[in-house]
Fold:
Amino acid sequence: MLEASKINKSFNGTQVLTDISLEVDSGKILCIVGPSGAGKTTLLRIITGLEQADSGSFKIDGQPFDPDSNNTSNALIGVVFQDFRLFPHLSVLENITLAPELVLKESRTKAQAKAKDILSQLDLADKADIYPFQLSGGQKQRVAIARALALDPKILCYDEPTSALDPGLRQSVETLILRLKSQGMTQIVVTHDMTFAQNIADKILEVKPAQEL
Ligand code: ADP
Ligand code: ADP
Structure:
């Protein structure tokens, strides 16, 4: 599904990523692990077009892929941020329909129907009309996942999906990620939590801090 070859990235002369290559097959889960500061978030930001690599090449389904194109209306790769980044002044439903309406130009009726469908799948049907501050951490995360899914991504990426949650909620994130896998979603998960990675991953990529290379 997604292949990245020889990605390099430095900040202010400090090499953070050196010749990183990765591959994730359709419907599989790739976990990117490594200690804090190793460059995991940077790698995820590069794959999703939020940061530009100094060099490297990408393919999706065998075709050359420019991550920068992910910032346009046909984003193939969705992202769930560590801090969720929900819009505080919008309801749960509006958080999910905003981008489909603005970016995919879906009608409000269609966007709302799709959002409600996704919310039910994520056991959030009764939360549509409330606001992010009224949600628990685990619920906020599921709304962030619902928002990403509403853009119909081929690949869904997560940055540290367990770190902002109470330890007891790790199990529920695992269950949700594995449920999306059973529906065929391809997923890339950045985590420093090795147990979590081992529980969900089909493949694990270890990113090492630059000084250990
Ligand atoms: P991880 O996600 O593994 O904790 P990061 O990708 O966040 O690692 O960061 C890797 C290194 O790159 C760190 O030393 C960090 O300070 C540095 N870094 C990340 N983003 C930037 C940036 N925009 N400007 C400068 N340095 C950065
Ligand atoms: P995480 O800890 O979740 O891996 P960070 O908190 O390190 O990620 O990074 C969050 C944001 O801060 C990213 O946009 C990253 O590019 C930026 N960033 C990280 N380190 C630095 C740095 N040393 N200088 C400037 N920006 C940074």
